[in-house]
Protein 1
Amino acid sequence: MATAARNGVPLAIGLRGGFIAALSLCLVLLTDTASGVSDDAIWYQQADSGERQIEFYFFWSRQCPHCLEAHPFVENLPQEFPWLRVHSTEVSASVENARLYMKLAGMLGEDARSVPGFLFCGEMYVGYRSTETTGAMLRERLLACRARLTGDGMAVAPPGTGVALPLLGAIDLRGWSLPLATVTLAFLDAFNPCAFFVLLFLLSLMVHAASRLRMALVGGVFVLCSGLVYFVFMAAWLNAFLVVGELRLVTLIAGVLATAMAAINIKDFFWFKRGVTLSIPERAQPDLFARMRGLVSARNLTAMLAGTVILALAANTYELLCTAGFPMIFTRLLTLTLTPLPTATYYLYLVLYNVVYVLPLTAITAVFVFTLGARKLTVREGRVLKLLSGLMMLGLGILLLVDPGLLNNGLMAIALLAAAIALTALTARLWPDGGTSS
């Protein structure tokens, strides 16, 4: 069962509708009585043809703009699914209708606090975004319910939602779409040339201290601070998108920004730091280098760790320039899910993203500590990473502009990553000297 309580109703409409709904529900509490009707009879009925018919309850309010957006979709359902009977019920002007909504929701252990509400087959969904997102999800759940009634297991998942894996059999990927997209985007974002540049240079200097413990502490604190700064940055994006809701204009702006950042990163492969660039500014590098050298010479462990924190905060301020598009795209994706997520779930996804984001940095630190070796990121390697992130970001930006609903498909994120890797490898091969001169 999935529920959602966030509707994004404008304040003036929300207050008026909320007052009416609150009044109706108060009356419901005074008048509601137990019903002897069985649960099965509420969700299913026998049609004249003898076929079992699914009862679909659509609760809405005239003051709710999302309800009005859902009407065309709901009205078309009986034509699409002849075995479905729709009960369209307006709740703000009728105590009886509000009582019915509250009773059905209560049977499922839910509260009838928001509209539009969709109840069928013992499931309840609240909120509506579009036909392509919420509508698609409701269709899938109706098909799954129909399959259970008829015993036709093949009807549960529409084509393209599952994949056969050795030993595991058929796996339905719909429930894994957002986690897959999270891991995929975070994995690509993790190969941040700016972060690699700073960490590799820092650890190369720490080699001269000939202390694995110091190197591990400095590298570990740097990676931890990088993850925390990124988390705060992404939380700011997330809250901004939650405030503005699912306005199409905001998604278009995010798509335009992502596409522009992608073009700059792709440009940097061929013409590095010519014109506009998303790299650590030349004027900031001397200060960063001076801070790093200061850490090597620090004798006091406390001072060294404090200096590492300050360095990490300063470096990450510039590092955000390199791949700021990915956090923006991902947090926008979180706010465009089929149904709104609980607040805690949003932040759990941010935690997952950032855990994946710091894995390559953690691996680099571990290798340096184990080998006490020195390694720097070459200009060529940095530009190839920029090309890879730019191509991936370009694909995501185009999807935000053309069809944001496709971002809910985890396979799409994997396909974009595979295409970006293939194009990067091909481009780097065809232009082996691309970006070697500045």
Protein 2
Amino acid sequence: MRLSKLAVSSVLAAVVCAQDEAAPSQQVEHPEFTPYTGAVTGFFEQFIDGSKWQKSAAKKDDEFSYVGEWAVEEPVVFPGFKGDKGLVVKSPAAHHAITTAFDTPINNKGKTLVVQYEVKLQKGLECGGAYVKLLSAEVNNDDEGIEEFSSDTPYQIMFGPDKCGSTNKVHFIVKRPLPDGTYEEKHLVSPAHARLNKLTNLYTLVIRPNNEFDIRVNGNVVKSGSLLEEGLFKPSFNPPAEIDDPKDVKPKDWVEEPYMPDPEQAEKPADWDEKAPFYIADPEAAKPADWQEDTPDYIVDPEAFKPEDWDDEEDGEWIAPEIPNPVCEEIGCGPWVAPKIQNPDYKGVWSQPMIENPDYKGTWAPKKIANPDFKADEHASDLEPIGGLGFELWTMQEDILFDNIYVGHSVEEAEAIGNATFVPKLALEAEEEKLAGPQKETAPWDTDEGVLSAVDMFLADPVSFVLERVLGFFEVFSADPVSAIREDPVVAAASFGFLLISSATAFGLLNVVIFLLFGKKKQAAPVKAAKTKKSGDGPSKLTQADVVDAEVEAEQVAEAATASGVEGVPADLKKRKA
């Protein structure tokens, strides 16, 4: 995008190089906002007239799904032009949805599509979205569709920043029809990172008729390619032209094993000793000439003495401590043992040798046939008519401001708008940031500045926080598992750990149910065992303790039998209990 590079560079330099000489009494002069009056053939929103935006009334379970409030107001953090308003998200930790319909649907077939808008994160962004959806024209033809705008509303493009935890990306999703009439979302696999400062940032998407696209942030291209490039989107825009033949079956005589046991060596050799140890005593080792086997390794400490307060009757016999024998520091003492070496005759457990399989044919694969569902999407850039746009977001931080929204066919128009609105606005904001000086780093537990920590986000709305993190992870995981795990290892570990624990818990509960249903019949077994044990003891003299134990045992067995419904408790047990 041909934004004024000199102006943008100057602004960025001012952002980075804040000068200490800026006195607190200084103020940035903010000129009055002047609406853009250049030629615009597409949709352009500056939020200067009566609002054409409608907050969603969509309900779920008889409750409002989107309770987040919206307002059209000036920014309060690093403002730009005086009187310059934008659409602002006003509720923290809430779902927001708002939309506007185009006067005339935008037909993109054979044309360039340009989407551009400003995002200002006045309180940063810890977890939430700031992306826009280009809605299908069918929504424009149905007033109820606008009023009931939700996550289920049909759309053509989803584009813009999203941040939660370690996930930070600029979404680019294209929704395309399949041959069976359903729609499929095509996700950009490796999206660019969003800008998370508190200044205004300009996001631009350009899709050309030749299927080329580029994504720009503040006029700089951060991602580009072709919609049809294999591996750039997942799933790909075009299905494979050939697929495996589902009717093809591997022949029964197909051999996939490259090696086989040697039939000529089917038996273990007679001289193969499997019990031979891995290490043996070194037969060439000899005891050193000065080795003293009769000299102990430890001797009584000659400097030790019995304490004066030692009492043999109370403390026991006093024994002097031992110390390493100093004689053994230079020579060896005690029984001599030859060192170990690897056994040259060690062979280990015998196994039949393997040889190359003469019948090996390689790994079998079914033959390929033409894909009956193949339909080349050669014009992926030809979207269906676009009838409006909307923001359908969940965010933990409020005061996200959107402004200067453009949807049309002209890159030149978008560039002119950016140079006339974004560039001078960013310069004023940079001056405000420079005047404010270094920003205080907010502690994770300090929310005075409106920055919520992960703990605060969870406490504010635990269900939404967990769902946003988990669903966001699995969305990326379905497209690129490696990147998903690398970007958010905590959620990955928690998700897979939860699945593992849930499986183990379910298995344990199943065992408990099986035991309760089929395990009760075995409770009467101790009666017979106890009786058999007594009859086998022989004529021995019982002590008083034996009698007491027998009575207790009889009571326990009788109670167990009664509880389990066992009939015919032995008479001697009943009598003993009585």
Protein 3
Amino acid sequence: MLRFAFLQSVPVMFGYLFLGTAFGILLEKAGFNFIWAFFASLTVYAGSLQFVIVSFLSAGTALTTVALMSLFINSRHIFYGLSFIENFKKTGKAYPYMVFSLTDETYSILCSLQVPDGMNYNTVIFLIALLNQCYWIIGSVLGGLVGQMIPFDVTGIDFSMTALFVVIFLEQWKTSETHLPALTGFTCSILFLLLLGPDRFLLPSLVATVLLLSVCKPFIKIKEEK
């Protein structure tokens, strides 16, 4: 079963090792060594949020802003969890970990997973989730060590976070029948960036986006149902 789970997780392994390494390097350059990278990936384990946390730690961002950003960035996982809640309950003692370790990539694997006869489905999904987190932890620690031992210019490596958000934006654009949510978020971000500057625009733009989408929710539903 371990071999089968590993083979299913190979695509995630390459992505997580690379992004995890980038995170570890950025964290080390922000003044936090590989031990911090290890515990961040062990306890937080939220790729995009971890990249954001690096800038938060460097800037001394208020905890309220950190909490709200965490909620906004990872709120989609609420819906991921709802679709697998019955499956995860069957894993017994592993249930809390399955909820904690459900990332975008793990969710994608589990959605299309076909377990061969004779294998325990619950054990397989647990192993896949565990392996994926191990890849991320290994990449993070490796990045922390590399950043500590090898002096090199890391200018631009933080673009991996920007690239990640661009991919998420493009996926939302492709899969949604109406582009109103994407356009609303983009417009609010540009508007508040111009009004408040790069240091203060993020939270107001997120709040404005959520409020506008809440008001436009009926319209969005109608458009998607056509």
Protein 4
Amino acid sequence: MKPARPVACTALAAALLLTGCSGDNDAREVPRGWIAKEYGRDGLDYVDRGDGPSKVAGEIDDHRSAFSRTTSGGRVFLRYRDDIVAVSPHLGGSRIEIDDYRDGYNRWHSHVGHVWPAPGSSGNGFRGGGPGSGK
């Protein structure tokens, strides 16, 4: 009868530990609220009238780390779980555009297509060798 108490305590501790580890549901999500508060609105996009794309992208990435970051054509792209943030030069500052991953990938394909996986893919191009379907 005494072993039941340590087992129950161990199970409770494990459950609390697992819950604590998975508590950050917004990790790797675009910090939309923070961007809206930090930068001015310009139509559907956001702007920083004084800082260039590299600095603005760095601020966003510092606030919430992106999966990946790439630079192309003067723009900086941040890849989050389901979204792409494009930071472009704009009137001496920067324009910040947020697209869901599929739309952003298609829109910015010439800049990110050689670096990031196509939407819905596993992220690598290896399809196996030998006979069989699905290649």
